[in-house]
Amino acid sequence: MSHPQVPPSASPRAKPASFPPTYELTPADHQFLKSLEPLMEGIARSLGPHSEIVLHSLGDLAHSVVQIKNGYVTGREVGAPITNLALNVLAQALETHQDVIGPYRSTTANGRTVKSVTTLLRNRGGHPIGFFCINVDLDVSVVDFVRDFSAIHDVAGPPPEIYPLELPDLIRRSLAEEMPAIAGRTGISASEKNRLLVLALEQKHIFSIKGAVDLVAREMGVSRHTIYNNLRSLRRIQEPAGNP
User: Fold this and answer.
1) Please, where are the H alpha helices in 114-164?
2) For 13-150, which CATH class?
3) Spacing of C-alpha 222 from chain mean position
């Protein structure tokens, strides 16, 4: 089974041959585990408050929980030990490389039923360094779960997201969002309308994508030279005073 790609790392050194083994994680291993914290926050926000996200480090099995979101689901905090199931997953993984277990049911200390998925994390050398776990509280009511799962807290929010299959689709849909308002303006030349379209796409950061200039020029029916001229003019205007 495939596993996450992580930074290069020297092989952790297994301490005396016994199970469970403990590992001396390298700085690169710790850095990789640390880098997963924003991902945990994103998943926790997406799934809602009834889903616990847990990151374990195999560097210290007695205090393996190094980060946790919504820990009230199981009642744990940072510094909690590894679970019995995680030890079983580790034992299996060392022999079979089965790195993802679940979904499965388990019961918390306070009797709540959770649906869980446990993923073993390896470094690029293939050595286990941690676990990434998601535990969903199944005892919460469907009404409460759906309400919290569906909640959108940022009312203003970013513009509606486009899910393109290819780059030309993103360009066409971005232009389509801007064209009605700009095309409907009267008293300005065609070249000024083109400039306004380029400005709108620049503000959407479309031109930060490689190949976007040629695609925009094709969709707008102008030359790439025209697009570049407009971009140079716009970026020159936006430079802070005093810059060369």
Assistant:
1) 142-150
2) alpha beta
3) 37
